[in-house]
């Protein structure tokens, strides 16, 4: 109970800090995730909605809503896929690229501040333990389905 309780409290505290950082740039976590995923892709920072959906581990409906909002703000552009006439490609606009390039350093600074109580070695150890636990929990959930 202590581990699960602390994980829950930690998640809530981290979410508050991340929301504060994202909102300073006019973003929420979902929008940041899409923009950051596109930014991580090779220039011209273009992916399909399916690739974004897999990267964000969300449903097609969720990715469509996120893309609608971001496109409405002029941060991403959906264009027909030249290789597949039925598909689309999503790319960062110049404005979207500028925004994520401003937000990303602040996000990383927030993460560093949140993890600052742990040395780099302890952070790596914690990351490994959390990965191990996550794989076990997700594996058990998959087996149950």
Give a structural overview.
There is one protein chain. The protein is built from 6 helices and 3 strands; from the N terminus they run ααβααββαα. With 145 residues, the protein is mostly helical. It has a 3-stranded antiparallel β-sheet. α3 (49-56) packs across α4. The chain starts with a helix and ends with a helix. The mean pLDDT is 93.
Explain the layout of strands and helices.
Elements: H1 2-23, H2 29-40, E1 46-47, H3 49-56, H4 60-72, E2 76-80, E3 88-92, H5 94-115, H6 120-144
Antiparallel strand pairs: 1-3, 2-3
Helix pairs in contact: 1-5, 2-5, 3-4
What is this entry, summarized?
Helices cover about 70% and strands about 10% of the residues. The protein has about 140 residues and is mainly α.
Beta-strand proportion = 5-15%
For the sheet with most strands, the description reads: 3 strands, antiparallel
Number of DSSP helical runs: 6
Order of helices and strands, N to C? HHEHHEEHH
Side-by-side strand order of the widest sheet:
1-3-2
The value of Rg in angstroms is 18 Å
Query: What is the helix fraction of residues, given as a range?
Result: over 70%
Shape: globular
Q: Residue ranges: pLDDT <50 for 5 or more in a row?
A: none
> Cα distance, first to last residue?
25 Å
Number of beta strands: 3
Structural class from helices and strands? mainly alpha
Please state the average pLDDT score.
93
